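Hello Y.,

Per our agreement to keep a running log of every chain we model this quarter, I'm adding this entry. I've kept the format consistent with earlier entries: sequence first, then predicted structure.
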Amino acid sequence: MQPYLLKHETITVNSIDYLIRSLKDRQQFYDHEDTAAALGISSATWSLFGVVWPASRILAGIVSSLILDGKRCLEIGCGIALSSIVLHKMGVDITASDYHPLVKEFLDENVLANNLPPIKFHTGNWEAENLLLGEYDLIIGSDVLYEPAHADNVSRFIDSHSSSNVEVIIVDPGRANRAMFTKKMIALGYTHHFKQFDEPSLDRTRCKGRILHYHRRHLV
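Predicted structure for the entry above:
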């Protein structure tokens, strides 16, 4: 029996129900043999991977309406990976990525609960290179700019895994690092536009921020 508490809920995205297993709350913690600590994940941030955040629900709704035939897609900092599961059910070529040591375990359980075949997963540490990841035509993420260093790290990570014609969608709930991230992306050659959002959350608060779109095309 695992030493942390779980919850099971049904999350509806674009009229389709998904069974999702996640941590009961952000107070859960268990780092067997300091595996997470060795990766730089503190006890204060350990649980963040296992929560379905409001921004992740918004991203899932966005990608559920996209036409992605023939495109390779990557979710960065996927956590519970709701958007990856939605795209996987749609038949999209999606790879989920995160660096928390329990993400794949939760992902495999949730994929199984929704009667889906195994989903592709790779470690995605924004401060390190993973040659197994390759390049993608669409890169997505939600609430990935919560630390000052992420503006630089995430932009570089995205750029290193972008195809010659790439679109990037980031749902950002008002993080202070957003402007610097956009500046970094523009310097790397990406065009940019955004749309504001203000959505109710399940806890009766509101999730406000911007849906950030970036695009870059290299002429061959």
